[in-house]
Write a structure and sequence with these properties.
The structure is a single chain. The protein is mainly alpha-helical. It has two domains: 89 residues, RNA polymerase sigma factor, region 2, helix turn helix motif (Rna Polymerase Sigma Factor, Chain: A), CATH 1.10.1740.10; 79 residues, Winged helix-like DNA-binding domain superfamily/Winged helix DNA-binding domain (Arc Repressor Mutant, subunit A, Orthogonal Bundle), CATH 1.10.10.10. The chain contains eight helices and no strands. The protein is globular and about 55 Å long.
């Protein structure tokens, strides 16, 4: 995020705290893509994603006045989102959360002409999705955020509330774990925190 963008986002957060609904809507719109990715990476359920995002929006609207540092709006938003996912888990029964690959549409048709290639690509995408869903949460979050393509490394580190180097290490490890699982290496270790 450039300094001008950060100042603009900080100014929007201040305006939202004063009751400016358009500023709040603009803040949410600007951050929607990565926010959706973050919630999905923690939740792991595309069917419940919209419900949790709606709760996040409601919490942001009702709690924007609690934001102490407007320049750290993204980190605050990420914290609010994680808390809402945890609340969602508590409300549900203690069933294991699973990702339903059928709910994730993969638009491969534009790239694939051969039915055999189509089957191979679909199988590969399914294996990658399965690998991502089995990642420990801290690696899954950074992997999904990195692959939304909306945030810089510095912005991802801010959202995750970790130093940039920690975020980069987690991303490298996450990619390695996914790659190892997809190509079939059995020795996939969960690394301890950096």
């Amino acid at each position: 995020m450039t300094e001008t963008t950060a100042q603009n986002e900080s100014a929007l957060a201040c305006a939202a705290q004063r009751g400016d609904k358009e500023a709040l809507q603009l803040l949410l719109n600007r951050n929607w893509g990565w926010l959706k990715g973050l919630v999905y990476s923690v939740l792991g359920d595309a069917q419940e994603l919209d419900d949790v995002l709606q709760e996040v929006c409601l919490r942001v609207i009702t709690r924007i006045h609690t934001l102490r540092e407007p320049e750290r709006f993204r980190a605050w938003l990420a914290t609010v989102a994680r808390r809402e996912v945890l609340k969602h888990y508590r409300r549900r029964t203690h069933e294991k959360v699973q990702v339903d690959p059928g709910t994730i549409s993969l638009k491969l048709d534009a790239y694939i002409r051969d039915p055999l290639q189509d089957a191979e690509k679909s199988e590969l995408c399914s294996r990658i999705l399965d690998a991502v869903t089995t990642l420990p949460e801290k690696y899954r979050e950074v992997f999904v955020l990195a692959h939304t393509g909306e945030l810089t490394y510095a912005e991802m580190a801010e959202v995750l509330d970790v130093p940039v180097t920690t975020m980069q290490i987690r991303l490298v490890r996450a990619r390695r774990m996914v790659q190892n699982q997809v190509i079939g290496k059995a020795d996939i270790r969960c690394m301890n925190d950096e």
